[in-house]
């Protein structure tokens, strides 16, 4: 559970975290975050869109774990993008979280004609010391290249949909070359884990198909943030460090790729 990756600026980030997309604000989110922290998680991923930042902050404070020991990520939503509105969104997120800083702040989606100004605002907040690390989410290679042509500070993280049916190998290779940490959302394919190979490997290793999918990501050096609000599932998703997939099994999972998305295509967003 203490497995970390080092970002471009030297900040370390837990390789496993809890996502809280669609977790209801209040008791549901607080219970999930507390269960995760009790299970050893030290990374929580939220966003302005999720409307549960306040509950995330409350749970972290209730846990008794020092703030500096928990890696907190949040994101600026599409309707809040642009320079001034991004600054305002960030400060609203801080108020909701009741924190003095966030560990990672991301552009949620590459909104055409806006993401460069949005990222410029995030760079300024970073320079002011209000953010420990900065990055983007749902950026394709061409989005990253376009941004890196003008940005002052290279994105440190790119959070994208990634799982055995969407392996993102070209994007992974590009990010490795550029030193950008790839992070996976929806790593468990919206629960669509009824894949013969995953079942076969689960039996081989004495694990669940979900644990096989998550372990595959960890061994590829990807940060992963499975979402759950069930304490037993949160604990199960963390039981990844008492086994390792053999190299040939990693290759077999790689071969499952269908370029299949369960979320939106970053090149065709209208929200």
From TrEMBL:
It comes from the Bacteria. This is Aldo/keto reductase. The keyword Oxidoreductase applies. It comes from Cohnella yongneupensis. It holds the Pfam family Aldo_ket_red. Belongs to the aldo/keto reductase family. InterPro entries: AKR, Aldo/ket_reductase_CS, NAD(P)_OxRdtase_dom_sf, NADP_OxRdtase_dom. PANTHER family: 2,5-DIKETO-D-GLUCONIC ACID REDUCTASE, NADP-DEPENDENT OXIDOREDUCTASE DOMAIN-CONTAINING PROTEIN. Keywords: NADP, Oxidoreductase. SUPFAM superfamilies: NAD(P)-linked oxidoreductase (SSF51430). Residues 16-258 form the NADP-dependent oxidoreductase domain.
